[in-house]
Specification:
The complex is a heterodimer. Chain A contains 7 helices and no strands. Chain A is mostly helical. Chain A has a domain of 92 residues: Cytochrome Bc1 Complex, Chain D, domain 2. In chain A, helix 3 packs across helix 7 and helix 6 packs across helix 7. Chain B has a domain of 104 residues. The chains are: A mainly alpha, B mainly alpha. Chains A and B meet through helix 1 and helix 3 of A and helix 1 and helix 5 of B. Chain A: Keywords: Heme, Iron, Metal-binding, Signal. Chain A: It comes from Alloalcanivorax venustensis ISO4. Chain A: Pfam families: Cytochrome_CBB3 (PF13442). Chain A: This is Cytochrome c domain-containing protein.
């Protein structure tokens, strides 16, 4: 065999350049299975009673500043986590309810309008009736933002023009309070 | 004669190699791994309109978007389709406290670091890498996820960036008459998107 014919091997050798070992290194990716623990999970469950480093003691009332930013954040989270059942308007006729899930009470009921923030906080954290706990999905700050938004939803059904600052009213201001 | 033959052979082998590395067999495009439960994004996202974040809860906070715990499935399925055989593995999983073994559809090589939160919080939509998930009866890989694919965007992110409220939307398009490139460049200023030089720095992804 002539010496140049060895060049034929070059493409064949190049085909071997892929290194699957580097693409799948001996480390554990999130949620991968690993043999280090008996249950085979790489992601370790958080032991009960764990306190996060920057965790504040549970607030009894909404610790967030009530402003447009908080409400926008609350609305976003409400639409993601609550609206499937409670509906975007809070009346409890979300798409999952339309598919047969037991309807939650409307958030506009007098009982829920009177309920304190803490009640909503506990329902989000621990669940209520057919509703599962959302503690693992909706972290502390998001819960309070959602509660602030629920309050604004409730208010939206019962708002009076006098509640709106004069310079934010949509109607031409006549200088007098409307009847 | 032998020389010509050898040359032809080299050409054929290079072509075959190129074909192989572009093929879906190698890239994984259209690959649909079998899952313990035939979960349909088409039903849950396309038809019911659930937000991505309802199940992939950590996508905005973490490098990993999060595969839903069986508890999340059972939030609805404790009441809906409670006797469906298809959902038996989910019920068993919650009862026995044993996670379902979902199979990864989008698996990047271990030598690249990808952070979901860095992307979705800066205007890169889910759809850019995952495709029209709302049309997938079974979850399928739709992009090559090659380095070329990443670089296409890192070299010129503008046309793919979206406003924050459209990141999780499927099939979003800019309003008609809006210059997509210009909109993207305004968004880049808003998100403080790093320079192309930084975005194409090796160490950005290969840490």
């Amino acid at each position: 065999m002539k010496y140049w014919s060895w060049w034929l091997l070059v493409p064949a050798l190049l085909c071997g350049c892929e290194q699957p070992d580097m693409a799948d290194q001996p480390r554990l990716e999130t949620y991968e299975t690993g043999a280090a623990f008996n249950d085979g999970l790489a992601a370790r469950p958080v032991p009960e009673g764990t306190v996060a480093r920057d965790q504040r003691p549970a607030a009894t009332e909404n610790p967030l500043p009530i402003n447009a930013e908080t409400l926008a954040h609350g609305r976003e989270q409400f639409d993601v986590f609550c609206a499937p059942c409670h509906g975007r308007n809070g009346r409890g006729q979300g798409v999952i309810v339309q598919r047969g899930f037991p309807a939650p009470p409307s958030l506009h009921r007098p009982r829920l309008r009177r309920a304190g923030d803490r009640h909503f906080y506990q329902v989000i954290r621990d669940g209520h009736g057919a509703m599962y706990a959302y503690a693992s999905r909706v972290p502390e700050d998001q819960r309070w933002a959602i509660i602030a938004y629920i309050r604004s939803l409730q208010l939206s059904r019962n708002a009076r023009l006098e509640d709106v600052p004069r310079d934010h009213r949509p109607l031409p201001d006549t200088g007098e309070d409307p009847p | 004669m032998a020389l010509i033959l050898a040359f032809a052979l080299v050409v054929v082998m290079v072509a075959l190699g190129a074909y192989y590395f572009q093929s879906p067999y190698y890239s994984g495009v259209d690959r649909t791994p079998a899952q313990p439960v035939p979960f349909s994004h088409k039903h849950h996202v396309g038809e019911l309109g659930l937000d991505c974040r309802y199940c992939h809860t950590s996508v905005e906070q973490s490098s990993f978007a999060g595969v839903p715990e069986s508890e999340i499935c059972m939030t609805c399925h404790s009441q809906l389709w409670t006797n469906a055989d298809m959902l038996a593995p989910v019920r068993d999983s919650l009862r026995d406290d044993k996670p379902l073994r979902w199979r990864r559809v989008h698996d990047l090589p271990d030598y690249v670091r990808f952070d979901h939160s860095a992307h979705v919080n800066n205007g890169v939509p889910c759809e850019a890498c995952h495709g029209r998930v709302d049309r997938m009866p079974l979850t399928t890989q739709k992009k090559t996820l090659f380095m070329q694919f990443c670089l296409d965007c890192h070299r010129n992110p503008a046309p793919r960036l979206r406003p924050p409220d459209a990141v999780f939307e499927m099939g979003w398009e800019a309003r008609r008459g809006v210059d997509r490139q210009q909109l993207g460049e305004r968004l880049m200023a808003r998100y403080h998107t790093p320079s192309t030089e930084r975005l194409t720095d090796c160490s950005l992804c290969h840490q």
